[in-house]
Amino acid sequence: MTLECEMPRYQSHKKVWALKIRDITLHSNGTAIIMPEEGRYTSFTVDASYVLKHAPQAGGYYVVYDDGYKSWSPAEAFESGYTRLS
To answer: What is the end-to-end Cα distance of the chain in Å, rounded?
Structure first.
């Protein structure tokens, strides 16, 4: 597919909650434990469907949107698109 003109550009204006991931421990049942980089947050488990869909990696961000949708973002993409509020 070849476009004859440049596609429209978009700027993010969403507010999200996010934690940078220090480490991930994968379990044989498909779940994983995410260890946040900031020490004041405890590790937490994500289900197998999250791991399968997003393939999170250490160094990236665990992201939660206003509607509760949970995602993963590579650090470079996240840090270039979001500014920390608090």
So the answer is: 43
CA distances from 12 to 5, 15, 16 (A): 22, 9, 11
Beta bridge partners of 64: 17, 70
3-class DSSP string for the chain: CCCCCCCCCCCCCCCCEEEEEEEEEECCCCCEEEEECCCCCCCEEECHHHHHHHCCCCCCEEEECCCCCEEEECHHHHHHHCCCCC
Structure tokens at 52: 């399968």
pLDDT tens per residue, range 22-65: 999 999 999 999 999 999 999 999 999 999 999 999 999 999 99
Nearest CA to 24 out of 40, 43, 41, 38 is that of 43
